[in-house]
Specification:
heterodimer, A: about 140 residues, alpha+beta, Gyrase A, domain 2, B: about 80 residues, Alpha-Beta Plaits, three-stranded antiparallel sheet, 2 helices, 3 strands, globular
Amino acid sequence: MSDQGKSLSEFVFGEDELGSYARVCVDPNLYSLTAILKTAYWFTDQCYLFLANRPPLIEVEFRLKQGDSTDALKKLCGEFLNNLLDQAVRQKVLEETSVVRDTLVKKAFFEAKAALSKGVVSDESHLTHEDQSFKEDPLNISGR
Amino acid sequence: MAFVREIDNGIYSRKVLADTRDAYRSYCDVSVTPLPNNRASVSLAVKKEYMVDSRQIVLEFWNYFLDSACKAHLDSV
């Protein structure tokens, strides 16, 4: 295996017995493992990925499913990092709003489940019936 | 030819490794050597009849492994 490290400082490109690869390092103190794994999960259908824990960083290795293009690898790395940032923000919002979200869900389920108290009876005496015309006005609405 | 990689069991759990090894049993032989600090060395040897597609098999193995590891991690949080 050879690490040629011939491009941008953020990305490392190289070649081994499995072909070309690109590597980027991610700081797990900045991006949680959950955010990294969620992002990786989305990328496994586009390319081959491998995560290596190299404390204090996590190294993400990319390989193309087809071809050997360095530009395509570079593009993948960039997209991965953008998506990672997106996931990290989502995670943060999720954590910050978890109490409010739980309260709303609890309230919604509680209200749907709560039975009517004994004294509450539906008064349906004013509902219209089949032989009633719009001219009739039993509640005297037009006179109000 | 064996393809060797070192994994961290904090990302790639032992349970998921066992499942992945089982899923790829027909295509390659997988041997695992435990290492200190919750790590392991995983060696893949593609079976003779599939040597032509060895790159794809090895990389698909690692993608499947990562995919399953992500699912397991996300289900647990």
